[in-house]
């Protein structure tokens, strides 16, 4: 969640930097409509942002796998890194599926509801895992 949650704030900025989207004035639409309907990004901007955002989970998985049984201070830190990296990658891959995209007409199919529920559950798990990991691995002596 923390890895991919900030991605939604990064995507419009990345699109503006790449020059892929136009800037609309805030007077044209209300603030709530701007939040509900973010500007659509082009495919290159989406691919570039996915590549950038998946760097941290790949690093978490690789560092956790390398030092799995070798951490003398706290042996659960590599496990924490592995689980959070794998689930963050899973969340990132699930967000690429077409069933997670909101349809143009606004009507959700049962498959899109299932994908939304699954993404929500994985995000909730990552949030709980983040809190549990900080308490168990970092703050405990």
3D architecture notes:
The two termini are 26 Å apart. Helix 6 packs antiparallel against helix 7 (110-138). The chain has helices at 2-5, 7-18, 31-36, 43-53, 55-66, 77-94, 110-138. It is elongated, with a radius of gyration of 18 Å. It is mainly α and 141 residues long. Keywords: Membrane, Transmembrane, Transmembrane helix. The chain crosses the membrane at residues 6-23, 43-67, 79-99, 111-132.
Summarize, please:
The chain is an all-alpha fold. Helices cover 65% and strands 0% of the residues.
Topology of this structure?
Layout: H1 2-5, H2 7-18, H3 31-36, H4 43-53, H5 55-66, H6 77-94, H7 110-138
Strand content: under 5%
- Main β-sheet, in a few words? none
Structural class: mainly alpha
Can you count the helices? 7
Overall pLDDT score = 75
> Share of helix among residues?
55-70%
The SSE string, one letter per element, is HHHHHHH
Q: State Rg.
A: 18 Å
Number of domains: 2
Distance between the termini: 26 Å
Keywords: Membrane, Transmembrane, Transmembrane helix
Transmembrane segments: 6-23, 43-67, 79-99, 111-132
């Amino acid at each position: 969640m923390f890895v991919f949650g900030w991605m939604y704030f990064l995507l419009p900025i990345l699109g503006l930097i790449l020059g892929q989207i136009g800037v609309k004035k805030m007077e044209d639409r209300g603030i709530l409509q701007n939040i509900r309907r973010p500007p659509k990004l082009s495919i290159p901007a989406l691919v570039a942002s996915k590549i950038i955002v998946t760097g941290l989970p790949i690093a978490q998985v690789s560092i956790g796998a390398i030092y799995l049984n070798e951490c003398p201070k706290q042996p659960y830190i590599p496990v924490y890194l592995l689980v959070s990296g794998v689930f963050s990658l899973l969340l990132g891959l699930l967000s690429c599926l077409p069933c997670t995209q909101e349809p143009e007409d606004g009507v959700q199919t049962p498959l899109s509801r299932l994908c939304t529920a699954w993404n929500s559950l994985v995000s909730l798990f990552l949030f709980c895992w983040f809190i549990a990991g900080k308490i168990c691995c970092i703050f405990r002596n």
